[in-house]
Write a structure and sequence with these properties.
By secondary structure, the protein is an alpha/beta fold. The protein is elongated and about 70 Å long. It has three domains: about 70 residues, Winged helix-like DNA-binding domain superfamily/Winged helix DNA-binding domain (Arc Repressor Mutant, subunit A), CATH 1.10.10; about 110 residues, D-Maltodextrin-Binding Protein, domain 2; about 90 residues, D-Maltodextrin-Binding Protein, domain 2 (3-Layer(aba) Sandwich).
Length: about 325
């Protein structure tokens, strides 16, 4: 195998494909044609002497050889990018942290942490992006992110099975809550009983995919009546405010609930816990990454949660 002729373009394309999960998405993110992406991947695989990407129906994933090449490619690309930033007068790599978050964390938690960092560490340059858990995990593996905020539900499995395992730190573990219109009968109390959730109308996630029933109370013993679907959490909350139905919310979103919405705990069954995780590749901590992680931990503890009367057990 001979990497002497592998171009920086090929390395960037390789990282984009690993990050985006498909050739098509990588081509769109880079502004290339799909055939151009395919040619670059073919070139780097020829240099490696074997497949670096496993082609699957749902996209691609790195092979064992691909993970080795990705680790080395990330070092090269990060150094080239740091050089370009220094030459253009932008903050160097030592002051840049790439952070990803799941959608609801971008409503309250991430903005609070970034606001605190602007006051305490104005020299830090944080580059943020929102994504689903699979997309954020791919970006961590591809070296496109330094840290990612992930949401986890029981049974709290690792977000992927690749090696080395991601380093996961639990920032908070709180019960899932229910958002109800202020004029709804359930809003009269300080909590909702799970038995009262039967026969309700729900505002859920998209019509297909893994988040199809996101927004419906887990384990509901009936086929839910889904009145509306929306991917955006704030859109769901505003639909609740309009009296269009109920939806579940992580506790972190209670502080962002619009007027006309009450956020309540649910009693009468096992607590539906949700963990907020901080994920990263297992590598030595740099000072900037550690400072961003500390700001995220502080923000997670500081986020207001509903404080109703304790429901009966």
């Amino acid at each position: 195998m001979d990497f002497s002729d592998v171009s920086l373009t090929a390395l960037r394309v390789f990282r984009a494909v690993a990050d985006q999960g498909t050739f098509t998405a990588a081509a769109a993110s880079l502004g290339y044609t799909q055939s151009a992406v395919s040619r670059q991947i073919a070139a780097i695989e020829r240099a490696a002497g074997g497949e670096l990407l496993e082609r699957r129906r749902d996209g691609v994933r790195l092979t064992a050889a691909g993970r080795i090449v990705m680790r080395r490619a990330t070092v090269v690309l990060d150094e080239i990018d740091a050089t370009a930033r220094e030459l253009s007068g932008l903050p160097g790599q030592a002051g840049t942290v790439r952070l990803g978050w799941f959608p609801s964390a971008g409503v309250v938690l991430a903005p609070r942490a970034l606001t605190a960092l602007r006051r305490s560490d104005p020299e830090l340059h944080v580059v943020g992006r929102e994504g689903s858990t699979p997309a954020l995990v791919r970006a961590l593996r591809a070296g496109s992110l330094d840290l990612a905020l992930l949401a986890s539900a029981p049974p709290f499995r690792p977000p992927d099975s690749e090696s080395p395992a991601l380093e996961l730190r639990t920032l908070t573990e709180r019960a899932l809550c229910l958002a109800v219109p202020a004029g709804h009968p359930l809003a009269r109390g300080d909590y909702a009983d799970v038995a009262d959730l039967r026969g309700q109308r729900w505002i859920a996630g998209s019509n297909s995919g893994e988040d199809r029933l996101m927004g419906v109370w887990p384990g509901l013993d009936e086929r839910p009546d889904i009145a509306h679907t929306a991917r955006d959490w704030l859109a769901k909350l505003h639909l609740v405010a309009a009296g269009c139905g109920l939806t579940t919310v992580p506790a972190v979103l209670a502080a962002a609930a619009p007027a006309g919405v009450r956020v309540l705990p649910v009693s009468g069954g096992p607590q539906e816990q949700r963990r907020l995780l901080l994920a990263r590749l297992p590598r030595p901590w740099t000072e900037p990454v550690a400072r961003v992680a500390a700001a995220l931990r502080a923000a997670a503890l500081d986020v207001e949660t509903p404080a109703p009367a304790t429901p009966p057990s």
